[in-house]
Structures are given as C-alpha cells and as structure tokens.
C-alpha cells in the first residue's frame, strides 16, 4: 500500500501558504510550536489535510495543537509519520472511527485525546 493512500490527502508547503495566506516561515513556526504536523518528503514537507478546515476560509484546526500535545505528553519523541498513520486508523475509544473523521465530525474531544495518550504510551514502550 502506498503511504499516500494510507495517510490520506496531503498539502505541500506552497498549498498551505496559499490557503492560509501565510509565509513559509509562518508555516515552519506553526510546526515548531506544535500547532501543525508536518511529514518529511525529501527536501520538502507534506501536511495531512485532516489538520485543516476548508469551510469559507482554510484554517488549522485548533484541536490539532492539543492532539499533538497529548501525544508528546506521553511520548515526547513521537515521529510525525506515526501520528499521521494513527489519525487514519480506527480507534476503539472513538467507536471504531478514525481520529481524522472524529475531528471532521466535531465530536467530543476527550475520547480523541484519550486515544492519543493510549497510543503514545504503547509506542513509547
């Protein structure tokens, strides 16, 4: 299975800049501050689309920072690829829904964060 199929739709840096109306430096700052998940792709980065809302105006979902923080609380060195893969995998705490679909459905967040912490703990072992 190709990673692109497994991880769902992605945006590149130029697309993120264009859709958010920000610079590359601002995108890098969002990644460095833990507000946005970036996957290495050669000399560039790819950004899983589930992190964004695409309503009237594209924006980074506010919950992404909390979600990434939940992983890092338990497993500070978690790799972005593992988080991206987890987001596309059905989770028992989410009644078999994927975290990406859970976010898109604007559901209660605590089960999502519980699933993130449980997975982080398993990965950290």
What would your notes on this structure say?
- By secondary structure, this protein is α+β, with helices and mostly antiparallel strands.
- It has one domain (3-124).
- It is 50% helix and 14% strand.
- The chain has 7 helices and 5 strands, in the order H-E-H-H-E-E-E-E-H-H-H-H.
- The protein has helices at 3-7, 13-20, 24-32, 63-74, 80-87, 99-104, 110-124; strands at 10-12, 39-41, 44-48, 52-54, 58-60.
- It has a 3-stranded antiparallel sheet.
- Strand 2 and strand 3 (44-48) form a beta hairpin.
- Helix 4 (63-74) runs parallel beside helix 7.
- It is globular and about 35 Å long.
- The protein starts with a helix and ends with a helix.
- The mean pLDDT is 92.
Please tag this protein with its features.
7 helices; three-stranded antiparallel β-sheet; alpha+beta; two-stranded antiparallel ribbon; 125 residues
Strand element count: 5
Cα distance, first to last residue?
26 Å
Please state the CA-atom Rg, rounded to the nearest Å. Answer: 14 Å
Overall form = globular
**Secondary structure: helix percent:** 40-55%
Runs in which pLDDT lies below 50 for 5 or more consecutive residues are none
Compact overview of the structure:
This protein is an alpha+beta fold. It has helices at residues 3-7, 13-20, 24-32, 63-74, 80-87, 99-104, 110-124; strands spanning 10-12, 39-41, 44-48, 52-54, 58-60.
Topology at a glance:
Elements: H1 3-7, E1 10-12, H2 13-20, H3 24-32, E2 39-41, E3 44-48, E4 52-54, E5 58-60, H4 63-74, H5 80-87, H6 99-104, H7 110-124
Antiparallel strand pairs: 1-3, 2-3, 4-5
Helix pairs in contact: 4-7
